[in-house]
């Protein structure tokens, strides 16, 4: 499944059209297509050196979306209520063991059957590139608490290893990934307030606005 052809990317860039992609689980083909797409977008706006940073951030946000969806599949299969604090803590420990055992690969097909998707939307113009990653599940209170803590505390660090040693959460990996996104943005002098994660209705949204500096 190719994301876009080179010609279609060039056409959308020249016409100022947005890019939208829906996926259900990780694949090498998706990663390659995403890297190529982001390279072309960054080249269009003279941000070639930023392409690898943007890819790292976007890929992490998409992976977090997959993990959130797979977690819900796991909780359903084990009759656990993700909104219950007790069930959530137990389920997260069980889920981590499940992931470490390499048993989650089959969940892509299950997510697709249940329509548990992750959407990537990229808008672009001469002033900014705006990336939105969403999945069709609202964050559980415990998940939102962890994410808010990661966004808040990452502001105080300049090194991901320092963050991991002092604040690493062994229960789930999303916090480290979010902290890495914040640190990468800080390293590029992009205001961290341009990066937001929130829930509304029945979806969770991560948004990032990248200003394009005028020469």
Short account of what is shown:
The chain is 53% helix and 16% strand.
Give a written overview of the molecule:
The protein has eight helices and five strands, in the order αβααααββαααββ. With 215 residues, it is α+β, with helices and mostly antiparallel strands. The relative contact order is 0.15. The model has no long low-confidence stretch (mean pLDDT 89).
How much of the residues is beta strand, in percent?
15-25%
pLDDT < 50 runs, ≥5 residues: none
User: How many helices in DSSP terms?
Assistant: 8
Most strands sheet: 5 strands, antiparallel
Overall geometry comes to globular
Query: What's the pLDDT, averaged over the residues?
Result: 89
Cα-atom Rg, whole angstroms?
Answer: 18 Å
| Percent helix | 40-55%
Structural class: alpha+beta
Summarize the helix and strand pattern as letters: HEHHHHEEHHHEE
Largest sheet, order of strands side by side?
1-2-3-5-4
| Cα distance spanning the termini | 37 Å
Count all strands and give the number. 5
């Amino acid at each position: 499944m190719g994301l876009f052809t080179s010609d279609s990317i060039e056409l959308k860039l020249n016409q100022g059209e947005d890019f939208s992609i829906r996926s259900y689980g990780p694949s090498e083909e998706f990663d390659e297509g995403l890297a190529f797409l982001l390279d072309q977008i960054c080249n269009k706006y003279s941000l070639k050196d930023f392409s690898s940073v943007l890819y790292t951030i976007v890929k992490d946000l998409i992976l977090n979306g997959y993990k959130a969806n797979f977690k819900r599949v796991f909780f359903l299969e084990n009759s656990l209520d993700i909104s219950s604090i007790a069930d959530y803590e137990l389920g997260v420990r069980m889920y981590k063991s499940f992931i470490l055992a390499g048993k989650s690969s089959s969940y892509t097909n299950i997510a697709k059957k249940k329509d548990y998707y992750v959407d990537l939307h990229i808008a672009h113009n001469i002033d900014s590139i705006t990336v939105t990653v969403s999945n069709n599940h609202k964050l559980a209170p415990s998940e939102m608490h962890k994410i808010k803590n990661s966004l808040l505390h990452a502001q105080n660090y300049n090194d991901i290893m320092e963050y991991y040693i002092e604040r690493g959460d062994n229960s789930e990996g999303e916090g480290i990934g979010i902290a890495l996104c914040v640190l990468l943005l800080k390293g590029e002098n992009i205001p961290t307030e341009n990066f937001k994660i929130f829930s509304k209705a029945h979806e969770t949204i991560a948004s990032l606005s990248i200003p394009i500096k005028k020469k």
